[in-house]
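--- STAGE predict ---
source: upstream dedup step, 1 unique chain passed
mode: sequence only
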Amino acid sequence: MRPKSLWENSAPRKMLWEWMISKMEMIPCLRVSIVNFRNWRCLKGRYHVRERETVIIASSDADQVHHMLSAGDVNSGKAWRVVRRPSDMNEYSKKIRELRAQERTGKAHGKLFVKVMCIKSLDVPLPPQPTSMSCTLNNGIHYVTTPECELAADAKIEQEFELIEHSKLEFTLSFKVKRDPHIVTQMKASSQSTRQPVPLPREVTPPPTKSRFNFFSSPKKTAKHSPRPSPAPTPMMPPKIEENLARYLKPDGSLARTFIAYKDVAAHCDTRLFETTIPLIGQRIDPDGEGTTTTTLPVGELALQLFRLPPLHGVPPTQLPQSLDECLRGLRHVSWHKVTYFEGTLTQNGGDCVTWKRRHFRIIGANMVAFNDVTRRAITTIDLKKAVSLYDDQEKNMKTPASHASSSNYDDEFDGPCGVERSFKLFFPGNQRISFFADTEADKVKWLEILGALVGRIPPNPLWAELLWQKQQENMTKQPA
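--- STAGE serialize ---
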């Protein structure tokens, strides 16, 4: 039988492992746990698992995930992210997919925003004293009255109403004058003049005159028992009505009103602002023979702004716009985020580039997107909303007011290629930075001008506006050319 070699003997092998472990413990970067090593008996044909003895504690303050788990809505903890699919370009892509899935199951109602701007060319006698009026909207369910404003020929109102959309929506806008003392006086005088008709003066026949010829003439024969004619009725003059504001008011002070049917304006205000003027219909007291009558006539025009917000399934009511101005502002902002403001070539270091890399960039809304030179597809996007400052390496100063730190703090805190010509940096929270340099000085000036105007001044992009914009784009593609 062949004798065992030195390596096959268990005692020398164990001594060798003990010596190797002791040497590894002397080096901090190679120190590992040796608890499982003590129980080793044979190295051949076995697998061993090294267990970490330290306890890992999950904390919200720990480093966040740095890779994309799904498209959109990923808080990667970085100002940049890799674009693997077109939906990665949209920050709300995951949330919008969830909302679109609820369109067939959930119920949502649209909104109609009505803003009463002003009254134009009011054709009624205005009293010299200051007079107040109010506007009331009545849709059969709600009765809402605005605060009082001053009555004038061109009176500014600028009051807004919000209505829930339905197919039979109709409403009236009426205007009522406040019963101030001078208005009450006019109304009393007008009512007395209409109630007291003035009789016309009767014609008086003169008596027969006596003359000397009457003495010789024989008296006229009168018919005996002739019926005495009945006196004619006293004719009445039309009442005199004073021309004042009370002549155009109802007893409760109502001056004029207008009627609006939703079906007549829905197509004009669908997700856009619709400005229009509608006649104001009032009344006037006119004389009519022995009495008075009421004549219906237009007394002016009413300027309106209307906006229809379509149903947005799944969006919480608190995240929906609450006014017409907020609707218009949200649509302006989402359109702003779709515009390409600048493009050019830069060399990047930082972010997803561990070394200097030449790339073609486009600033699309709030994103600085890098494109592949061959495929022309987006590969990386940098979120400029997270940028806190823009730093010029050559001038050693800040180009944006977003950060109040001095330039010396950045020079001391960050080490890097500050000596590269035509270079600048974007700084982000969490001690993140991305460096760039341009091909020419003119290109650098343009990039600094565009980025300096964006950093710290980017408008928000609300979720409801992004969802509405995508729906509009889908409807446009479905329409036949």
